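User: I've been going back and forth on whether these two constructs are worth ordering. Before I decide, could you fold them both?

Assistant: Sure. I'll take them in the order you sent them. The first construct and its C-alpha cells:
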Amino acid sequence: MAKIAFILLAHKDPAGLIAQAERLTATGDFVSIHFDANSNAHHYSQIRSALDANPNVTFAAKRLKCGWGGWSLVAATLEALRAASDAFPTATHFYMLSGDCMPIKSVEYAHQFLDTNHIDYIECVDFFGTDWIKTGMKEDRLIYRHWFNERTQPRRFYASYEFQKRFNLKRRIPDDLQMRIGSQWWCLRRETIEKVLEFCDTRRDVMRFFSTTWIPDETFFQTIVPHVVPRTEIESRTLTYLIFTDYGMPVVFYSDHYNMLVSQDYLFARKISPEALELRERLGALWQAEGMHFAISDEGKSLFRFLTWRGRIGERFAPRFWETDASLGRNSTLMVIVAKKWHVAKRLTEAIRAYTDIPAVDYLFNETDASLPDLGGVEKTVEKRQRHRRALIRLLMDEYDDYRMVICLDPSALDLIQDFQQDKSETRVLFIDPKFDEEYLRGHVTRVGLANESTPAEVVDRLLPLVQRDLRQETERVRDLEFDSFETISERQSPAKNAAALATFLRVEEDVAAALADTPHLFAD
C-alpha cells in the first residue's frame, strides 16, 4: 500500500505548518520539512519543539535562504528529499507540497489512487513548443545566467541580464537534455527520486546550468524526471489542483469553493485563502474521513474560464453554481429547540435520542460539552462553532449520515436563529415556553453576573422586575420571527397538546411524541 512522504517547503505560519504536519502524519504518512533560513528563528524553534518527537516528521539537514524564482527553492527541495529518502525507507511516493495546499480527497482515496497506477505524476510539457509561460521572459530564462534575485535585487538582476543581451553572452543548453516545463507540485515514486538524486550527484554540469536559470523550480524536475524515467511511466499532470489567470497569477480558493474542489480529479488544492477558515477546517477533516465516495466532475477550470469570460461581457456577478455549501441544503431539515431553561431542553434532547433515530445535540453554540462527535477539530471551541455555524451543522449531518438534525439555542441567540431561518433548508422551531418563578429569577440574576452573594437583598429585589421583563422581551422577539413551522410546549399545557406539538416538530408518530411529552420531570427546575 502506498505511503507518502510529503516534501514541505515553508517560510511562515508555524502554527499552520505544525497543524499540517500533524494532520498528514496522523494517518501514517511522512513529512520532510525545509523551513526557510530567512524566516524567524523563533518560528523554527517552535516548529522543531512541536514536531521533533513525531517519528514521521524529519527536517532538511541544511536550511537555505530561499528566494522566489531562484535556484535556492530547488536546492531546498533536494535537501528535504534527501532527508525524507534517508529517514523513511518505507515511503513509496514523494509528494511536493506548500503551506498553502490542502487535501481535497481523503487519505484513503489518495492511497488507493496511487496504488492503482505505478507511474510518476509531474507536469512536463515541451519548453519551447507550448505557451505554458503566459507572460515575461521565456528562452531567456535558460540561455542567460541569472545570478541575482529579481525580487530582492532587481537593479542587479536586470543590469546583469541587459549586459549579457547587449554582448550576446548566450550559453548552450546541455546537449542531452530536452527542456521541459510544468507545475512544481509533483508526486514521484521512490525509484524515480533515487534516480534523480543519483543524477544530481553525477551530473555536476547540469546542476551548474540550472543553478543560474530563472525560475528553475518549473524546469529542473520537469526536465530531469523524463530524462531518467521512461515516458511510458510518466503522466504529465499534477495531482495538486490550481488555476492560473490569463496574467499567470494563481486563483485563490475560498469557503464557497468546497463542493467544486472535492469534485476535481486531484488530491490536493492550492492556493487556499488564509481567511477561508471554514474551508480549511472542512478539508482538514476530510483528509481523515473513511468510506468517502467522490463524484469526479473535473469541471473547475472550464467553469472558471466560462465565468471570467462572462465577466468580460458585463456579467461579472453570474451565479456561483458550486456554492451548494453556502447553505445546509434544500433537502436538509434543521429542528431548533429554543429554551431559556437549558436543563429542560437537554432532558428533551436526551429523550429524542432515546426514542427516535433523529440526531440531537445540546447547546453546541454555548457549551463545550454538547454531546458532539469528533469532527476533526472544528467542534473543539464554542468560538469556532459560532464562526462556522453552517459548516458545523453540515459536518454533523455528514457525520450522522442524516439530513435531519436537532439543536438547542438560547432565545438570546437571535442572530443564530435568524441565520438558520434564512437558510434554504427547512427550519422548524420548538419553543419551550418557560415559567419563571421568583427562585429562577434570583438564580438568573446571579448566573448572568448582575449580582453575587454579597449583593444586598434590596438591590436584587429591584433587579427582579427588570430581568423578568427582559426575559419576556426575548420570548416575544423569537415569536416575532414568524417561522413557517413554529410549535410550543409548556408545563402549562396538557400532555396531549405538548405531544401534538412534538409530533409536528419532529414528524414522529403519536405514540413516540406522547412518550417524549411524558419524559419524567421534563419541566422540573
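The second construct, handled the same way:
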Amino acid sequence: MSPRGRRASLPPADHVRPEPLSSNGLVVHHYNREQRVKEYDFTTLPVAEPMQRSLAMLFAAQCTPHRWRSHGSSKMYWRQLTLFSSFLAKQDQPPGDLDELTGALVNRWWQSLSKTAGGCNTFDYTARLLRGDDRLQSGPVADALARRVPRPKSQTQSYAEAEFDQIRTAARRMFRAALLRIDENARHLDRWHRGDFPRTSQDWMVGEALEHIARTADVPRYVRGGDKKREPLAYYRRILGGGRAENTWQRLFLSRMEATALGILLLAEYGWNLSTIDRANVPQALPDQGEDGHPTYRIPVEKRRRGAGNYFETRNVTDDGADSRGRLVTQALQATRFARAAVEKLAPGTDLLVVWRSNRPDRDRENRDRHPSIDVFSFGLSHDDAQEWAQQLGFTGSPFQRGRRTVVAVDRREPTQHNQDTHDRSYALVDKRVQADAIEVIASGAEDAAARARTAVLLAQLTDAPDPEHTETATADCSDFDHGPYPAPDGGCGASFLMCLGCENASVHPGHHPRLTHLHHALGNLRSVLPTRTWAKDWGDAHAQLDDLKVKLGDGTWEQGLARVTDADRDLIDLLLNGSLDT
C-alpha cells in the first residue's frame, strides 16, 4: 500500500503553506522544505473511519517544517502505519479508534513483529506517533507504547579485499571514462572559442554544437509527431554522430550513474557516508598554493546526527600528484565544471559538488526532495542510485554501507566523522574481518576505549531546554538509551546514573542544575569522611565531571542552581548516593 503522491510547482515567495490536514480529516498533504507536496489518503488504511481520522491527525501534526522536512520521513512513517493498520484489521474485534486500544493488544503487536531492525523500527516509529494522542498519555496502553525496544546489532560487515577492489575499479573505470570524455570535448570547445577551426568545417560545427550544449544543456530539438517525443534536429544528429545522450549532452555533463561512480570514489578515498556525499559542498582551493603551485582544497563536511544536531568539520587535502588525496577533488571539479557553471546561472549560490544532468528530469524531480532539481540538473546521490549502479555493474546491493565500514574499520583504522569510542564499538570491534586480521589491535583498542571512558570528564551536551524526544534520568537526559557505551547484557544501558555525564548521549539543561550542584556539594562532603583511595575509586570520576560542568556553566549559573535546590532534589541525590538508584 503506497501513498498517492503528486508534485507541486514551487509557490511564490509570499505563499502561505496550506494546512496539512484536509477539510474532511482523512487526507494529509505533506509539503517538504521545497514546497513540493505528497498526498496521503488515510481512507486506504484497513481500519474504521474514526481510527483513520485519529491516525491522520497525528500524522498531519508532524508534517510541518520543524518536524518532517523531507518526503522521505513521511513515507517512512506511512509505511509503518500501514503495517500497524494491517495488524489491527486482522484482529477478531478490531478497535474502532485509538481509545479502544489495550495494553495487551499493543504487546501482542510487538510480539508479532520480527526482532530485526525493521521490526524494531516499525514499533518505535509507530509508538512515537501514537504517544502524541491525548488519550494515550497514561495507563496500560501508554506503558506498553513506552516499551524499551532493544536494538539488534548491525549485521553489516566489511568487504573482502578483492571484492572492494572490484567495486573501486569499476567506479574508477566509469568515472575516468566520463572525465576523459568531458575533458576532450572541453578542449575542442576551447579551440572553437579561439577560432582554431575553419568556419563550416566539421570541427567548427561540432564546436558550435558544444557551445550550445554548454549554454543550454542540450542541442536544439523538435517535437516528433505521434508520440510527441523531442528529438534532436537532423543537423545535430549528423554532425555529432547520433541523437542519443552519449552523442549530445553527455559530451559535457555527467550522467546519474557516472555521478554515482564519483560518489563511490569519494567514499573510498575519504570514508564519507552516503548522506555526507549527497550534501557535499564544492571544495574551495586555498588562495595561497605555496611555491610548488599545487592546489590545496578546503573540504567542508557535514554529517547529520539524530538528537545531537549535526557534525561539521573542515579538512584540507592537497593535489600534488596522481596518487595524492587531493587529486580526486581536482578531477571531480573538472568533471562537473560545465554543470556547475550552468547551475550558477540558473540559481546563483547553489554550491553542491555532486551535480549531474538528468535524462528524465521530471522523474528525478519527483523522486528527489532533499535537493530541488534545477532545470535538467539534479544533485547528490540516493540509496536507489547506488542500488541501480551496483545492479548494472553486477554487484549485490548498495556499496556505501559496507564500503564505508571497509574504509573506516579496515583500510584507515581511524575515526571518520565520529569519535574514537564509536569507532571502536560500532566499527572495529564488531567487524569480522578486523577480528580475523588484527586480534591484538582490537584488544588494544578496547583497552584504550575503556581507559578513555574511565578518565573522561564532561561529555554530556549542554542545552538550553529539554528535548521531548529524550528520556529523563536522575542526572541528565538521554538521547539514545539503547546505544550507549555501557550496554547491559539484556539490552539497554547498564551504566550507573553517576556515569551519565561521561556519555555523549546525555544532555544537561537548566532543569538539572539544582540537583547536580547539590550532588557536587554532597560528594565534597563525602570526601571529608572517607579514606582518600575509597572516595577516589567510588566518587572521583563523578566529582571531576561535576567540576568540569561548574567551569563550563560559570560561577553565576552554578550559584543560581544551588539557590534553586528543592527537597525533591535532595531526596533524589540521597537515593542515588545510597545505592537505591544504581541504574
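Notes on the second construct follow. The two ends are 43 Å apart (CA to CA). Residues 483 and 492 are 7 Å apart (CA to CA).
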